[in-house]
Amino acid sequence: MPKHGKNFVNADSKIEKEKTLAPREALELVKNVSFAKFDETVEVHLRTGLDPRQADQQVRDVVVLPHGLGKTVRVMVFAQGEAAAAARAAGADFVADSDEEINKIAQGWTDFDVSIATMDMMGKVGRLGRILGPRNLMPNPKAGTVVQPADIAAAIDQVKAGRVEFRLDKTANIHVPIGKVSFSVDALYDNMAALMTAIRRAKPAGSKGIYIRRVTVTSTMGPGVKVEPNSAMAMGISQV
Q: Which residue of 11, 129, 155, 204 is surrounded by the most CB atoms within 10 Å?
């Protein structure tokens, strides 16, 4: 087992390991036990009952968090012509509309957080798979990051506003950031409710038995706090 510092041990001692809390209580506790000198990210970790090896048990979708993530998202756009101009006007941080920019990425430059591409550029973008793929930066229609040229501005706006992609990993878990420790409990709760609503809607057709087995919230450096799964799954239910 890895050794933890005294700040982590002190924070961990304030958590009852076997107790599951209501979502709001859990978020309050995460904020109260955070100790890092920087503004930590608050994350939700979901243990599912899915089998990642089965094609009909995959989860991949996006959610727009009402209060954003509390960080600046650097957006790369692959577009050309009028769509490239629209992307710049909409606030894209980088626009790859020539072979020069694409070659720069092919050589390993990836100083951005999200990439969006118009459909007519995917032939060129596809050749960047070995660079973008391992970094989870490859545009994908399911994530809303491959769009028609006319929709490029709206896609940029959503990403900047706090659109987050989530997916099932190879260990049947889903990990999603929902904000910063500096956020109010209400803001974190709203973001988590939006996420859980999206998780419910993304339940795959092949899901058998219990869909979400365990829910944990944590900060970047802090210990995990268990959330009562049924209460978490009911978050935002009146909005569905």
A: 155
